[in-house]
Amino acid sequence: MLEVENLEVSYGALAALHGVSLAVRPGEIVALVGPNGAGKSTLLKTIAGLLAPRAGVIRWEGKPLSGEPSQRIVERGVALVPEGRRLFAAMTVRENLELGAFPQRAQKGRRRQIERVYSLFPRLFEREGQLAGSLSGGEQQMLALGRALMGLPQLLLLDEPSLGLAPKVVESIFAILAELHREGMSLLIVEQNVQAALNLVRRAYILEGGKIVGEGEGHRLLQDDHVRAAYLGPLARGTSA
Ligand SMILES: Nc1ncnc2c1ncn2[C@@H]1O[C@H](COP(=O)(O)OP(=O)(O)O)[C@@H](O)[C@H]1O
Ligand SMILES: [Mg+2]
What we know:
Layout: E1 2-11, E2 14-24, E3 29-33, H1 40-47, E4 55-60, E5 63-64, H2 70-75, E6 78-81, H3 93-99, H4 104-107, H5 110-120, H6 122-126, H7 137-149, E7 155-159, H8 167-182, E8 186-191, H9 194-200, E9 203-208, E10 211-217, H10 218-221, H11 225-240
Parallel strand pairs: 3-8, 3-9, 6-7, 7-8
Antiparallel strand pairs: 1-2, 1-4, 4-5, 9-10
Helix pairs in contact: 3-7
Adenosine-5'-diphosphate binds next to strand 2 and helix 1.
């Protein structure tokens, strides 16, 4: 279980998170939605140990996670798929996947795990010798997700997995996330595609201006007036009339 309590994070004098609290229970799939600049990426980066909080606590499986180096956080089973994917462009698909198996507990089962990633993403198998930089956007997102899975995470943090992708590709990525959830993985997903995210998850949080301003079941939030007005556009609002 992931617990975040009263988290405060700043960039110099600029406060980005003002006392954020949230939880992801074992095996739960949770969405975090909110406008640009709300602090969503900041929150995921802080959980992953890439930013240090000014105040607050992050606990994973009952023990503090804040203050640990990012490598150690991956070792403890928490993996981030960052926005913009951060692949090694000049390395092949297979080499990128192999690098994802750096956590100690992932090294022994590396071959089996590559097969597993290829079975989830047959496209990656077809392109295993191709350079990551030459993949399409959707394939790069699949590779970034596959690389995180190579580390055998128990909690996957995803920063805008659908960004810039065609609807069909988004659908297939979300189907994989649902499958990982069915297999018992915990997921925290940051999304701008609010409709798709709220349909995927059981529970979601809304982050605005560095504060959690709402929380609830995905399907309920889809009916919420503020959510509809702020995130779902006039078309969605029209359907409720
Ligand atoms: N590296 C940085 N240096 C200074 N300010 C930053 C940096 N990254 C993000 N910010 C600021 O922090 C706030 C939250 O950003 P971010 O977490 O990226 O939001 P989101 O992911 O919700 O769009 C914004 O005001 C943004 O401008
Ligand atoms: Mg962001």
